[in-house]
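Notebook entry, structure prediction.
Reason for the run: the old model in the group folder had no record of what sequence produced it. Starting over properly, with the input documented here first.
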Amino acid sequence: MPARATRSKATAKAPPAKDRAVPKNGRKRPAPTENSDGEEEDAYQDADDVSEAESLDSDALDEDSDVKAPSRKRKRAAPAGKKSPAKTSKNASPKKAGASSRKKRKTKAEETEDEDDFELEEGQEVVGVVVQAPKTGRVPPGQISKNTLDFLSQLKKPECNDREWFKLHEPVYRLAESEWKAFVEEFTDLLVEVDPQIPHLPPKDVIHRIYRDVRFSNDKTPYKTGFSASFSRSGRKGIFAGFKAGGESLIAAGTWCPGKNELQTIRNNLLRSPRRLRRLISTPAFEALFGPAHPHPKGARQNVFGFEDELKVAPKGVDKTHKDIDLLKCRSFAVVHTFTDTQVLAPDFKDELARVVQIVRPFVHCLNDLMTIPDADSSGSEDEGEPEDGAEDQDDDDEAGDE
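New structure, fully documented this time:
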């Protein structure tokens, strides 16, 4: 029901018709008319002749925007036999008062619903509800929680690995990211003790972004499905061998698909003397983690060998019957060790990573030596065993990650 303006009690009323004076010009004033509220109104009275008391009436001010301006046309008098409804006060009728209270209650309920809604700009639409970060299952710094593994598992699903889903789950991602940063910081403390040549860098300098570069990829999913971090003497972007953990909870060590010049340098040094590398990849502790030191019969990844990154024939200028042809055909010199979810969630997971790093460190240092041109005076030093730590490697790449 539209709002209705009311007059103030201080409004002056016109005198009765019989007491009105006749104008001097002799013309009689027309009979007064009754307005819709049952009040008498002079036909000559205009809308602009509102008294000062009426203009200051609070009801009129509040409802002014909802009421049209009064017409300036003359109003016809109501028929003599028809009575106008009597004007009543707001509280005169109990029925009307009850209806008013119900209306107020309804209005209050509608306002409560409006508080839950928000105005959308043109072209916008509601796409979902933001998922808050879990309140339970959190772990101390230096540990990985099941919440993080669950979030990364969801990213593997095509329907979840898109920007819309990620935006709705951003609080969950931020919690997992902060947990990963804390883990990397704790692991770095152990790593620099195992290999003092690795600098102690802050997490932001060694952690990789979760966003994929899809410019030249057929896979257009925008996000990686795991967290990863790299550690090296030259920083995260070093080109030399190192440790890397990522994918499905793994740690990898070595050099993966090195550049043409680095790969040729490794092969030249292996042609001269492969004994040091052979010895390191054949130790019982190394084989227990990465497999036997020979190619797998079916080409599966085993130790440093794997058909997916090996040459099908001998390198150019090398006899295909060379005794070290298995090493010379390699295009990558990397080893991988995986972990179960139970191991990842264990409180001492970072200590287990440090143990693997301790075993694989001599292999990484050996590769760094093979990727550099040896001095003329050290032509036979590689066959005599592993040099002392700190004097053998030119640069280390150590990567660690979790998914």
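Summary: Residues 179-402 form one domain.
The old model has been moved to the deprecated folder.
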